[in-house]
Amino acid sequence: MSKIQNPRSSSIRTSFAFALLGGMMMFGACGDLDGALPDETASTQQALLPTGPGAEVWRANMGVTIAPTKDAAAKTITYVFEATNQGDDDARQVVMAAHFGAGVTVASSSISGFDSCSAPGVVGNGSRYIQCTLSSLGVRAKAKLTVTVSNPTNATAQASAQVYNLSPDPIVDNNYAQVWVPGS
């Protein structure tokens, strides 16, 4: 938790980091806490510290990239989503969620390195998603999801992906990627 003293009051603004819970991303909120400082032992940083003699904290810098290839004649787009563990330790309980904008339909998918992926799902706005999981990903190791979508109108198409793991991630800026494939 980060604490920022509000210069106009004695309150503390506390921002909560996101946490991975059962494969779902939960976002905290910001709010003012009046009075005493919150108990430091309940903070996110404290929860990540070693708890016993010889205990270690594993850190895995996960990243995700997307490489699209459009076939205008076939009215398809093939996306290669790649989750990479850039170190320092093995990533544990890796989850990658791939999302496709409305207007496309998942035609086929294949994986390399993931334990499993969900069947393509549909969100209320018509967009599609696939979620892949992996129990452990070693340092410098990669896992790929290749998805071909049909784009019957050859309209501009969007895809995004996010990757998470239970190990603390020192650099979260590379955990999300998004691409737009221009229509024809």
What do these coordinates show?
The N and C termini lie far apart (47 Å). 3% of the residues lie in helices and 53% in strands. The strands form four sheets. Strands 8, 10, 11, 12, 14 and 15 form a six-stranded antiparallel sheet that branches. The protein is mainly beta and 184 residues long. The chain contains one helix and 15 strands. It has two domains: 2-48, no CATH class; 60-181, Sandwich (Immunoglobulin-like).
Terminus-to-terminus distance: 47 Å
Shape: elongated
Query: How much helix, percentage-wise, in residues?
Result: under 10%
Q: Tell me which oligomeric state these chains represent.
A: single chain
Percent of residues in β-strands = over 45%
> How many beta-strand runs?
15
For the sheet with most strands, the description reads:
6 strands, antiparallel
Rounded radius of gyration (Å): 20 Å
- Going by CATH, the architecture of the largest domain would be Sandwich
Q: What is the total number of structural domains?
A: 2
Please specify the SSE layout and strand pairing.
Layout lengths: L1 E4 L6 E4 L3 E3 L2 E3 L3 E4 L10 H5 L11 E12 L4 E13 L2 E10 L4 E8 L3 E2 L3 E2 L5 E10 L4 E9 L6 E8 L11 E6 L3
Antiparallel strand pairs: 1-2, 2-5, 3-4, 6-7, 7-13, 8-12, 8-14, 9-13, 10-12, 11-12, 14-15
